[in-house]
Structure prediction request, 361 residues.
Amino acid sequence: MLFTCLPPGARIPGRFPGPAHARGKWFTIDIHCHVRSDKAAALVENDPEVSRWYLETAASERSQAINRQNGERTREQGSSPEQRIADMDLMGIDIQAISPAPRQTYYGADPDKGLAAARATNDFIAEICGRYPDRFVGLGTVPLQASELALAELDRLHKSLGFRGIEILTHVAGEELSAERFRPVFARCEELGLVVFMHPDGFTEPRRLHEHYFANVIGNPLDTTVAVHHLIFGGVLHACPNLKLVLAHGGGYLPAYSGRIDHAAAARPDTCEHLRHMPTTYLKRLYFDALVYTHHQLHHLVEEYGADHVLIGTDYPADMGETDPIGFVESAPALDDAERRAILGGNAARLLNLEMPARRS
Prediction:
């Protein structure tokens, strides 16, 4: 019998909402979910370089066509808080920490346009959070292409908009996050106690990822893997030991193959100019969403980094998302209820400075 991608009658993976779960058994917070600002998009729609997205430019024509279809299908989920809440209610999600669609960071824009787009996106997120404060908290965006403007917008979204953190991509228009000019932003986030949620932008060297949606399937976790290496070996995580950095997609590939970085630090003096500890010491300080698809991978994250460093993230409304995060964590055989409670909402509540309701299990 030939394999078919989608047997007749099967639920489409990655299509939200997933299986129904009543709210109330667990207090649940989704750390990885995106919104789309039409106003921000309108600011850059006539400038293809500004809106360039590595994940899209690396894809084959067929993948790009499917991406456009998915974009139309999920447009309301990405922009309508009412549709989003209806889906959250079905899935049993209490709170979403909403962040921009990754392509709406617009790091390729000139500084003034980048700031205008960031402010439009942040204002849209603030509007949603203001209308439904018991269901949403904000993770905003800042124009990292201009550090001074980024710091000003960071202060605004923290002081005026009440956001709990920011989303950043894995590079800034191809420039590594370990560059010295980004250090003040990381330091300010650490000082303010803000969450930094890092999401991939599609791998910047995509020549071998053109077919089969590899630009996403391989490229996204690979991009995170490369970025985390730069943050560790470039000294950013040593300089900011209390930075609350959350990695999308389970942290990419590094958490599953971390022994190699310690070996390199011991074997090669050109790897450790900025290190004062073994590289995995810094890795173990980070936080990982549970968007890893299998219990084996989830158990590995918990065993290596602790249940207190793993959080649910759905990637709503993307097709590579986890549509049943509660069922996934509940059915993980190696977890106890305390670990499930932490992963489903307790860890995110602690990082985001949200109060855990006493009524939940």
